[in-house]
Task: structure prediction
Amino acid sequence: MEKYLSKAPQWIAESLRSPLRAVFILIAVIVALSPLITRLPGEPGRDYINVVQLCVIFSIVALGLNVVTGLTGLLDIGVVVFASIGAYTAAILYDREWMQFPYSFVIVLIAGGLHAAVWGLIRGAPTLRLSGDYYAIVTLAFAEIVRIVQRNESWLTGGGQGLKGYPAVNLWGAKLTGGEYEGLLRSDGVWRYDEVWGYDGLWFGNTTEFYYLCLGILALTILGIWRLERSRTGRAWLAIKADETSAMSSGVNLARYKMTAFAISAFIAGVGGALLGFRNNVISTSFFDTWFSVIILCCVVLGGMGSIAGVLGGTFIVTGLSEALRWGLKTLDIPDDSRLLFFGALLVVVMLFRPQGLITRSRAKPTEIPPDSGKNSLYEIGGGS
Amino acid sequence: MSGANGTPILTLENLSKHFGGVRAVDDVSFEAHAGIITSLIGPNGAGKTTVFNLITGLYEPTKGRILFHDGDSSIDLAKPVFDSFYTTVLCAATLGLGALALAVPPLSRRLYYRPRHPDSVARLGVARTFQNIRLFTDLSALDNVKVGLHARVKSGALDSVLRSPRHNREERSVAAAAMQYLEFVGLKDRAWEDADELAYGEQRRLEIARALAANPKLLLLDEPAAGMNATETNDLIELIGKIAEAGVTVFLIEHDMKLVMEISDRIVVLDYGRKIGEGEPQEVRSNPDVIAAYLGA
Result:
């Protein structure tokens, strides 16, 4: 602890010297303190936190997509599959009687991610040999197939109506039964948590606890991907992205590392999707449609593929702009779907002037590498070193 | 080191690769011997790079075998692919005797032909460089060599996310060894540059360092001196000599006759996919077929 404290002033000074990092720290502080602002009375405060929360959850999904698209170099236009599978799985599980125990949402979120990962592997296995446009088309088609199945299998997913009224995330187990909570289940099946907890929003997802849960999961995701990027697995992914042939000839098992990327990407997107479902308290195929994938891809490409800071920046810009435009267009009496036109234009401008995205992957910084001459040494040429 | 000097390390038996009607490699047989430098030469389009791609598993041979000798064992680098007639017969047999074929291992092994993947060839101890340099351009020189060390360490994604002791230990060794390989080829000062920022000759040497990092027994160099000036070529000759001296068997494709004649112990000549000559540099130089192929007589 003391070690970190003594380094803090130096670290802060260093951070402020780089304007980009200073901006990031500022945004991080604002995001972390956002729920305090919601306590302010009035409409604007609540809208604001809703948008920030959406940005946080979208960032998780975008970071998941980034593993396949940014690090492994395969264009994926179907990330919605994993988000929606995560959302449906988590919601359906959380509604079960045997899921009602403290902290069960942890299990539910992980289950949503794992189920998505399974489908990531199922989609990945036959497409291992595809790359570029061909791979992209398969992901697009697969997303559409899954969406149609989800819309038609109404016994499980609620069909076109979507899934509604499942319990919202809380620490004590989903369904609060007996005692003072009795009678909260309305005749239409919606739980009136708002009346219990005193939040004036209709969504239980709109709470401080849930906000910090999302933020915590985002932090874990960033940490995990940051570590993966700088490891054997991350190097293998980047090698595959740069040149599949020489990656193979260097001993990288292409199938294995692509599958790892698919599974990890789908897992993260699945957890993000599950959070999104709990936030909206309604899951429908009209929300999880192709546009969802396109927007997330837009976040990643705009911000900078393969860069964590880029993906976060891109997501906050795109999602923030999207919500601002939704509001702005509504006041002008223009259909709010036309905001997608702005993203098209924005993407064209970025591709023209900064095709690598706003923030590029940070380069390796020279560090001291201690020599390693013990029995662990891997330095060997032709049997002797 | 694998085997004594002079024993075969690589055997090509009646190797053929046809692309449609083009016989890129046609019934080629030769051996590369451990501890000496063998060169594969021939005019443009003679099929030299195709031979390398067959050895490293990037292509499947149309016919023939490639054996890699490691100590006492011989490993099939590329099992033969049956031609269409036999495939048809085998498919019919599979339909009829499916259950039997599945039950008898030697039979099922033949039915389910599994090509050897390039990464498992690399793992066996055969590393290569490419004619048109293929580095990981947006990685640093050091990271390029670290990818070369990939198959020699084991930590997986979970190790890395949790920063397990194995991850930490392996990352330390990998970084230290990568630096030593860079030092060996003389690129220690350039370790933190991106691969595409290096000069042309440096990129060639970085590719060699990446291949050496896999600790190969057999190193395949595809035109390592292409595009180099005289000084760079001399440095390269010295480097190849150093690698061979350390005990790695070098097998190279080269157009630069000065380099070939100077460093090769043995030369194999290809023309139009066929082997037209083989032997020591002096023999090959006076072989009438080789002279005809090179002078176009």
Remarks:
- The CA atoms of residues 37 and 45 of chain A lie 6 Å apart.
- The first helix of chain A runs from residue 2 to 17.
- DSSP finds 15 helices and two strands in chain A.
- Chain A touches chain B at residues 224, 227-228, 230-236, 238-239, 242-243, 245-254, 260, 264, 361, 363-366, 369-372, 376-384 (CB under 8 Å).
